[in-house]
Amino acid sequence: MATVAPFDPAPVPAPRRRLNVRALVRFVPVGVMLAVALIELVLANRKYGLFTGGFGQSRAVDSAGELATFGLGYLAAMGLLGLAGWALACRLARGRPGWVAAYIFALTNGVLFCGLLAAQYQLHSYFSDAVGFTLIKQLGGGSLVDAIKYGLSEIGVAALAGVGVVLVAWLAWKLLARMLPGDMPAARGPGRKAAMAAVAALVACAFVIPRGGSDAAFGLNRTLAWQGMTRLLSLATDFDRDRYGMFAIQYDAAPFDGSRHPLALDIPGNGIDEDGYGGDLALVPLPEPLPAQVFTGARPHVVMVVLESVRHDVLGKRIDGRAVAPNLEALAARGSVIAPAYSHVGFTTESLKSIFSGQLAPRSGDPSLFRDFKASGYRIGVYSGQPEDFGDISATVGMRDAADVHVDAMTLQDKRAFSFAAKGSLLVAERHLLDAFDRTMGAQDWDTPHFLYFNFQSAHFPYHHDGVELRFTQDPLDRGQMSAERAEEVQRTYWNAVAEADAWLGEVIARLKARGVWDDTILLVSGDHGEDLFEDGFLGHGHLINPRQNGTMLVASRPGILPPGPVAMADYRAILVAAMRGEAPPRPVAPPFMHIGPLDMPTAIGLAGAGDMLTSLRLDTGEACMVEQGRCQPYAALTGPDRKRVDAVVARWGSERWRMRQR
Question: Which of 111, 236, 347, 434 has the fewest CB neighbours in a 10 Å radius?
Answer without folding.
Answer: 236
